[in-house]
Amino acid sequence: MRILVLGAGGVGGYFGGRLVEKGEDVTFLVRPNRKKQLEEKGLVISSVHGDMIVQPKMITASENAETFDLVLFSTKSYHLHDAIKDVKPFVGEHTVILPLLNGISHVTTLKEAFGESNLIGGLCFIETTLNHDGEVVQTSKAARLVYGEFMNKDTDRIHKIKKAFSGTKADFVLSEQIERDMWHKFMFITVMSGVTSLMRAPIGPIRESEGGRTIIRQLFEECANIMHAHDAPINENIVDEHMKSIDALGYDMKSSMQRDMEKGSSIESDHLQGYLLKLAKAKHLSVQLLEIIYQNLKVYEKMHMENHF
Ligand SMILES: NC(=O)C1=CN([C@@H]2O[C@H](COP(=O)(O)OP(=O)(O)OC[C@H]3O[C@@H](n4cnc5c(N)ncnc54)[C@H](OP(=O)(O)O)[C@@H]3O)[C@@H](O)[C@H]2O)C=CC1
Ligand SMILES: CC(C)(CO)C(=O)C(=O)O
After folding, report:
1. Is the ipTM of this complex over 0.90?
2. Which numbered ligand comes closest to the C-alpha of 144?
3. What Pfam families does this protein map onto (predicted)?
4. Which one of 23, 24, 238, 240 has the lowest number of neighbouring Cβ atoms within 10 Å?
5. Is the same domain home to 48 and 143?
6. Structural domain harbouring 284
7. Contact (Cβ atoms closer than 8 angstroms) between residue 144 and residue 150
8. Choice among 35, 185, 244, 278 that is catalytic
9. Which atom of ligand 2 is nearest to the CA of 124?
10. How confident is the model at residue 307 (pLDDT cuts 50, 70, 90)?
């Protein structure tokens, strides 16, 4: 199976790297600066699951190449439209697009861009970031990529993908309810990135501070109300389930949005909290905590864009 990883950042670099390590036929679609960096240093992964360094196969958007069987779409949401344009020449009639972005609204965008039948569902649980040298630094235990056919269709292609994903150092999990899993992850990341960026702390001190768990729970409840109002396929007890997951996270666990803010980088505020807020407004729901969380991100963006950092 010819696999194209779109974006050799924290997520694409990690999961793509693990597939290369296993011996799969993986190429990274990268932009010129990242290409240069990877040519000079290789793809370096520093991880609690084992370090690795490899010289990856790469292409850039301007190059000619045949189409691929599978694309791991692993850019940030604010690069989605440009990335769609860049990857189009490498997508054929039978290419499967597997998105790993946080959030949900990109599903519609990708279906429109590539056709509904080319898209499968995906998400990941991992704490990973690029350091100053462009190395993939993966911290904490979870390194899980979840994927599946929408409506749990049983297809040949999903069995082929499962085979390609087996036997790596990362957890690749085939889901029978990928729509539900994506909404659940959307809720989880909205809260996790929201509170950690607002309080500028990892999850441990937040949940252990007086009133911390109450705020986290209230925010989950706001998100669940919005999603229920839109008939999203979420579990009835999802807030309890997510609170258990929050309690199980390592004390020092941070969100990728928070790490991006620490670096002064762009963030996915409109794709995550902003999109959920739009859904709340469409149903006239009062979501005060979500509004504060979103405002905090907008203030950061204003400062960031005006180069106050
Ligand atoms: N990091 C994490 O721990 C987790 C992240 N996620 C989600 O995964 C997604 C990706 O996040 P993450 O990996 O952290 O982001 P990064 O910024 O680390 O990586 C994204 C990569 O995409 C590349 N890219 C952007 N546009 C293009 C393009 N047109 N062609 C080629 N490459 C391109 C960027 O390259 P360039 O260097 O050229 O800018 C960058 O290296 C986000 O939606 C995030 O929310 C989900 C779970 C955990
Ligand atoms: C919360 C976490 C680390 C879980 O994968 C995540 O998705 C992110 O920070 O973007």
Report:
1. yes
2. 2
3. ApbA, ApbA_C
4. 23
5. yes
6. 181-305
7. no
8. 185
9. 5
10. low
